[in-house]
User: Fold this.
Amino acid sequence: MNQTKETARSSPAHPRQVAAGNAVVLEAPRRTPVVADVDVLVVGGGPAGVAATLAAAQSGARTLCLERHGMLGGVWTAGLLNPLFDAFGKGWIVQALIDRLIAAQAWRKWNWTHTFDTEAMKLVLEEMFTEARAEWWYYTTCVDAIVEAGRIRGVVVESKSGREAVLAKVVIDCSGDGDLVARAGAGFDLGRQSDGLCQPMTLMFEVDGLGAFPEQQSSEVLYDHLQEAMARVGKVELPFGRAKNVPWIIHLPQAGSGAVQATHVYRVNALDSRALTQATVEARRQAHELVKVLRATPHLQDLRIRQTAAAIGVREARRIRGRYCLGSEDITAGRRFADGVTFGTFPVDVHEVNPDDKVRSSRISSTQPYEIPYRCLLPLGLEGVLVAGRCISGTHEAHASYRVTGTCMGMGQAAGLAAAMAAAENVGPDRIPGAVLKAELARRGVGLLDGKAPEAIVGDLYGEKLVWH
Assistant:
């Protein structure tokens, strides 16, 4: 009987017809089974998604997280991204994760921040989800939104189990690229205003054999060593110029190991899977070429690649148009908001967008500690949904500060709590007053700016006045 049901499910009677000179395939209407109906549905298990899931589940909501990889953590684990920038002072879920990594001996101080062990991160996140009684599904891709009268009711997913539907009282898009809300019809912006180009992509890779290589203090010094090494090993075209944000060898908790932030692929549309494929192949080639040169630099003769990331790191894609657009003037002025739900201290870190430009765009600009208002998480024209992570509503310049993972976690825990509150009251998240949400976050130990002077905030977080070189 079970075999008959499975056969019927895997071979649905959906007549299809190739039409318009092989340009399109016509599909008949189909009936998609609803396999789950939850309070809060989180699309994406990256930094924002894990925080949103844990916050919602710990607040009593029946919560399900959908993740396309076979691990939680997203860019941390599938993307091998280190360090964990701008996590200090965020409190609640963020601090709980840090505490668990410390207990697992998977946390290391590096310069002004910390690094973590990626394998330990996978296990710790699964343990935290289990303890919170959150449900999660791996190998599951959200392919469409279910929208009724302007409200997202759920999503359509595809996986080994086939094409299925999941309904929810509130949905949170933590896909990074805003895939769900875009498919639901939300407006968005892509790249810089002048030409739509986005910051370059980077494929992170982990290495062994750092030996006596000292903790790196400057990207320019390593760049100069690479230039000297190329005179000995032969010319290799570096995918970047001399800049303050690349290249970096970042020490990890395991002795002698590190993560390398160096590969750069330009002018790639993150919304095009064919372009992403080509970018990944090119970045992996760059990684192996770079290691040849790095081996000819001081203290790195024993360097070897341990692994390249399973997923290329996308710095910038869609920025959803929300009820407030965070701009560069907000972050340079250190603006506070009545509905501020997390904060950022990271600089405006713009990697070169187009190396063929005569005017260079690569820059790092300091900021004042600023808040992110709840309105940035509420897409215009849609109900029943929140966004969290780098796809929130903001400008190209502001995004270059708030896109880092500690800040994305802060957004995620705010979105998860808001979703749980909305589901409990059977209202949309837009009906939750931002000031009320802010107070509830503070009650759970979330770090907020609370009227402190910028110098005091930086001192509290980093132990001294932070200067971005």
Q: What stands out?
A: Residues 11 and 162 are 10 Å apart (CA to CA). The two ends are 67 Å apart (CA to CA). The chain has two domains: 30-193+315-469, 205-308. The domain at 30-193+315-469 is CATH 3.50.50.60 (FAD/NAD(P)-binding domain).
